[in-house]
Amino acid sequence: MVFENQTTILHYFKITGCTSTLALGENINLMLKDAGIPFEYIRHTDDDWPDMQEKLKSQSIFSLTLPALEVDGILMNKTIPIMRYLARMLGQYGGSSEAEWQYLDALADACSDWREDYRKHYYLDDWQIPEDHFTKVTFPILQSFEQALEALGGPFVLGEKITYVDILIYHNLDDDHALTRLQGMPHLTRLVEALEHRPNLKDYLLQVKQEQALDAIAMAKRAAAAKADA
Q1: Fewer Cβ atoms within 10 Å of its own Cβ: the N or the C terminal residue of the chain?
Q2: Which residues of the chain have pLDDT under 70?
Q3: Long-range pairs for 154-157 at CB < 8 Å and ≥24 separation?
Q4: pLDDT given at position 209
Q5: Of 74, 46, 50, whose CA–CA distance to 64 is shortest?
Q6: Residue 127 domain-assigned?
Q7: Which residues does residue 8 pair with via DSSP β-bridges, in sequence order?
Q8: Which GO terms describe its biological process (predicted)?
Q9: Nearest to 37 by CA among 4, 71, 72, 61
């Protein structure tokens, strides 16, 4: 198996005050887990980030961002290029033709645009996010992905075969607080169910949901406190 005898490390920031799965690192975390690749996940703090920056620069990486993937000491960064690299190396999660790869790339680009639309709400509780964000921004985006999934029958964007884009869609739904807003969208619902029942992901994602349930309780307490102070 590819990566089986290699040392693989995922680097991302440790983000405090929010769910541990927030932001870009989780996309690669999910892909590595689903593929069954043994890896270490290092979450960097402000204190050790300067050292990590120097490590990136030492390998001629001057766009100093995370996530980064390290394979036997060789570093690469940027979320979608890493996921495409993994897909090529594994011979799965990608297209079977140049046309399919281009289609996946276009959908991945749409996922990046989607993230730019909701990332300003990263650190807000559900109750703090304006409702018109979901009606005016999220819902039209969900409709476009619903249509893409319907085109080939699902449950994934290329049909029965999971791709890196399906992972991007799932995690965008999570980060945009939209996993519970899929009423009337059977194809997106089916994608979520299919991904959450993947053998290497189901236990982990159940644990994530339990963590998020505890976060929701904390959110409710903050909402009550804010209302009392108003």
Answers
A1: C
A2: 1, 122-127, 215-220, 222-227, 229-230
A3: 154/187, 154/190, 154/191, 154/194, 155/187, 155/190, 155/191, 155/193, 155/194, 156/191, 156/194, 157/103, 157/104, 157/107
A4: 87
A5: 50
A6: yes
A7: 71
A8: glutathione metabolic process
A9: 4
**Domain interval for residue 72:** 8-90
Q: What pLDDT does residue 121 have?
A: 74
Does 192 lie in the same domain as 119?
Answer: yes
Same domain, 77 and 116: no
SS3 of residue 41 by DSSP: strand
pLDDT reported for residue 224: 65
Closest by CA to 118, choosing from 79, 67, 172, is 172
- CB-based contact 19:212 (threshold 8 Å): yes
The SS3 of residue 117 is: helix
pLDDT at 218: 67
Same structural domain, 77 and 120: no
| Confidence at residue 3, expressed as pLDDT on a 0 to 100 scale | 77
In this structure, the answer to whether residues 116 and 184 fall within a common structural domain is: yes
Closest by CA position to 155, among listed 172, 134, 170, 137: 170
Residue 4 to residue 175: CA distance in whole angstroms: 30
Residue 136 DSSP symbol: I
